[in-house]
Predict the structure.
Amino acid sequence: MVLSLGLSLKPNHRHKSEALSASLSNFRSEMSNLRNQLALKSESEFLSLPWFLRCYEMLNMSNKAFAKLVVDIDYPMSKWGDAATQEYLDYTFNLMNLLNSISSSLSHLSQAKLELSHALSLVKNSPSSAVQLLKKIQLKGPRSNFKQEFLAKSDETGCSEKECVILQALLVTKRTGLWVLGLVLSGLCSDIKPYLEILKSVALSDCSLPEELESRVCKLIVEKRGVMEELRQLINNATARFAEMKPGERWNDAAEKELKTRLELLENLIQGIDKQTNYMFSEFLAARDKLLDGFRHMLRKP
């Protein structure tokens, strides 16, 4: 859909408005292509480390696409009005909050994995101690409350043509970012709720995926174990096995090797996601600082 920018009757103004419309249209197309790249090649790759990293790459590329649009229409942050400035700050605030929820979940998962590893080291000498430690491990989902009003369209009344383009592009970028991070959080926590809460906000926009793919993703989140459920099953299986052992009994070497391998894969997954989470948080923080520095500099001008 091409944005209507209120074309002026003057040829020069009409040409500028058409150029702005074309830039926004190109941006929308690029964002749509990015979302389609996240489509699953196979169900087996869902919730794997490569898939999680593709989610973050999509988020990173969407930010680059927005930055390119800003350059294409020659409307740097230093020239933004109050509406675009506030919308960008809201956008980054929402995504940084979601990244914090992901970091918190990763920290919780990592701690539980360490406790499982510790229990594994105890089982040789004291299976009962290992069982007691495993029973104390708690796995909790994230606290999330994403409301649609946070994603409402900004008031474009009185805004310049370029400001309107930025506001509409930010709406697409924000909804896309929240959508993909909702996928990450739901995949980590084996809980469909964060994804569905965000889906309510983005489903009515041109930012959502085709209905067939949306349904497929929802089905997989419910059916697949997810990272937290994977860890929960490891803990439950180990607890049951250790409880059957007698003092001094040697644990099956093959079973021990399999558990250690699965724990190592889980650790790599957690570390990989954590690295990308921290990177994206730093990127958003730096962008906010740049915008606020420019705003403060403008206020200091006589």
About this structure: Residues 253-300 form the longest helix (48 residues). The chain has nine helices and no strands. Confidence is low (pLDDT under 50) at residues 1-9. Residues 15-34+45-73+82-300 form one domain.
